[in-house]
Specification:
The structure is a homodimer. By secondary structure, the first copy, chain A, is mainly beta. Helices cover about 15% and strands about 40% of the residues of chain A. Chain A has helices at about 65-75, 130-135, 150, 160-165, 205-215; strands at about 1-10, 10-20, 20-25, 35-40, 45-50, 55-60, 85-90, 95, 100-105, 110, 115-120, 135-145, 145-150, 170-175, 185-190, 190-200, 225, 240-245, 250-260. In chain A, the strands form three sheets. In chain A, strands 1, 2, 3, 4, 5, 6, 7, 8, 11, 12, 14 and 17 form a twelve-stranded mixed beta sheet that branches. The longest helix of chain A has 11 residues, at about 65-75. In chain A, about 50% of the residues are buried. At the A-B interface, β7 and α4 of A face β7 and α4 of B.
């Protein structure tokens, strides 16, 4: 089942994507809801970010072995193979929806895409086991953890490197039924495949992160957990580019890249 | 003017604290609002966290010279005098209100208070100068940046060290008129003064942080900027303690400390 948030005319609603149409819903997937009986052609509505994230958690840093090895080699960095499922943060100010523009900020030198699986929390979770953890996931969407690499090595907690406005494309919707272990993440830059990896090749999986975080922190509906990317994230993106990220079983998140005005 | 959020019976409202009473308001300080004409005795209502923070920014780390020097000496840390107003993050899951309990989590070894000034953003701010920045501040409140020190040196981005549930007391209200330069921050543990410093002795001030962040990131109403603490943060807090933080011109944030159940 695909949950989207969308705007039709001036009205914003949640909806369920079925074939080429969106069935409008009163309420949201995080609370009581029912279909209104209205539906819209999918290509006639504007898709919005699929949820508001009170807190935006990010696995890693790096949460895939080949990305870690590539980053250490390419940047001369010293990321270590993580021994525990420690989390970082991203900031929801940077969220943009499917088809919205990634804006390269003034002063940016090297901006990279990062195609990622994003788990969306559906229910309050505190002190859950890895075995219970997936019961608290509403579903999965796609994220692009856009990163300015020179700032990444200058900024504590990567605030500007990873959270400049528009740096967190997320969408197009939340798919509740995903076979993460057998999914593939495929990044296309201007239509050409630049990265392709098994989505489930994480160092720590979704259940391990949720369980680890929830030992200390109450996860709440809408919180997102960004699962990291694999491999290299080259070439750098620039104004005029278009980035598409497919995760099989979910869909495609597409975002054009433009210069700051 | 003191803006509070409060609950009276089952109703949650914003209000304005005037003397010993709270004048109830329809709306909020971040949007259209007007007094309803009702008021309540301040000691008859439950004060709530004064705002929801879409993103929680934290200055530093360390943003006061003597705290930096103490931390390097006490922990054998190697914090450097910051050259730029870089920001970190805290997470709103950890917010609790005035008089709510700080819960020492399981496994915690050394939990410290940190008495801080917190600036509350009132209007969208993007690319503002330091001279303009304070126009975007609604007012100031008090924060306790509770920190588990052994986790602080083990966790990337201090997720559990600083954001375990209940680790971010904030309140009691937002004061719109504060003379930050002449304010004092005073921390009392079980009634005894354990820390006392000039609030305005920051390395970087509120205007510098807001301007720096806003070059890349749109600050939005309700965002909070935690300004760091000065001096040592000893002794460690333990169940049965009570922490009071005064900032002159704002008020007192009080929180009992209890053990996890």
């Amino acid at each position: 089942m695909k949950w989207c948030r969308f705007q039709a005319g001036s009205k914003v609603s949640y909806g369920v994507v079925e074939g080429g149409r969106v069935a409008e819903v009163d309420g949201s997937p995080f609370e009581a809801h029912k279909k209104t009986g209205k539906s819209h052609a999918l290509d006639s509505v504007k898709l919005l970010i699929p949820c508001f994230s009170p807190t935006v958690y990010a696995g890693g840093a790096p949460n895939y072995v080949k990305h870690l090895e590539w980053a250490n080699s390419y940047f001369g960095a010293s990321f270590k193979h993580p021994k525990e499922a420690h989390t970082g943060y991203r900031a929801s100010n940077a969220f943009i929806a499917h088809n919205e523009n990634i804006v390269i900020p003034r002063g940016a030198k090297e901006v990279h895409y990062e195609g990622e699986l994003v788990a969306v929390i559906g229910k309050k979770a505190k002190r859950v086991t890895p075995e219970q953890a997936l019961d608290y996931v509403l579903g999965y969407t796609i994220g692009n953890d856009v990163s300015e690499r020179t700032w990444q090595f200058a900024d504590p907690t990567w605030w500007r490197a990873k959270n400049s406005d528009t740096f967190k494309p997320i969408g197009p919707w939340i798919e509740t039924d995903v076979d993460v272990d057998n999914a593939m993440t495929i990044v296309r830059l201007n239509g050409k495949v630049v990265s392709e990896f098994r989505t489930g090749d994480f160092i720590f999986g979704v259940a391990e992160y949720i369980s680890a975080i929830s030992q200390y922190i109450t996860l709440v509906p809408g919180d997102t957990l960004w699962m990291g990317t694999d491999l290299a994230t080259l070439p750098a993106i620039k104004p005029g580019d278009k980035v598409d990220i497919d995760i099989t079983g979910i869909g495609t998140l597409s975002n054009p890249v433009i210069a700051d005005k």
